[in-house]
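Continuing the batch. This is chain 6 of the set; chains 1 through 5 are on the previous pages. Same settings as before, nothing changed between runs. Recording input and output for traceability.
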Amino acid sequence: MHKLAEQVGNVMEQLLTDYQGGRTIDEVRTFDLPDNEVVNEILRNLRRIIFPGYFRNKTFKVYTVRNHISMLLEDVVYRLSKQIAIVLRYDEQYAHASYEAVEERAEELTFAFLRQIPKIRAYIETDVEAAYEGDPAAYNKTEIIYSYPGLYAILVNRIAHELFLLGVPMIPRIMTEHAHSKTGIDIHPGASIGKYFFIDHGTGIVIGETTEIGEHVKIYQGVTLGALSTRGGQSLRGRKRHPTIEDNVTIYSGASILGGETVIGKDAVIGGNAFITKSVPAGARVSIQNPELRFSYSKSHKKTEELAQDEAWFYVI
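Output for chain 6:
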């Protein structure tokens, strides 16, 4: 035991010395960093507020919707205002402001966000409708609300996007990365998404910060709405780097649509695995050229065939 304690002590001294390197990872900020678990709890309570009859907090012994929502709101106000006050210090405007000024601004932002909940609920209602109408495997809307990862990712994005628009640092990204870790769907909180948005299956979807998506858009797993190049790094901040998807567009699995000047026109259909870096006109149907299949029957016999020409094959999931 003495030898083990000595070895632990030696490692401790090495680490304490290493922490003196002055690097980003060496910073110790015990009290001025946001708490991911608290942010996740805020999300859980906001979900309960948005769906009051679906995700009740069973620890609350309440008998009316008013009492239930009142307690949830009080909890969100307390937790969210505290977390916003912490992250506001990362905004140059508030880096050296007084404690009182930061607390006051955090409270203002919290209530400005809460006033957007009816808007979020109006949008998410259309997303539930789009999922039900767009997926023949959905037995009812309750199943969608409880189990569809796409809807959860959209919900978190709609919450985070309102905080993003208010200029709240860090917290919106923490929220969307939480959804990313749970669903495999990566939507930046800056992305602007219209009503009736449906993500089917969802795993591997990436939607970048400056993406603009219209209404009645449907996308499948593995789709990337990304930047054409990120080599410019921070010099590209603030520029339109991601595509615009207009109304009634369907994008099938594995498609990549890249670039801030790329616009997918209204009513277009993008086939699976398409790679697009230029605008597509309204109503277009885009597909990749038919691939070849190779059949190996033996070492001496190989056969190459083109897939049968069926204009629908690259759309079916």
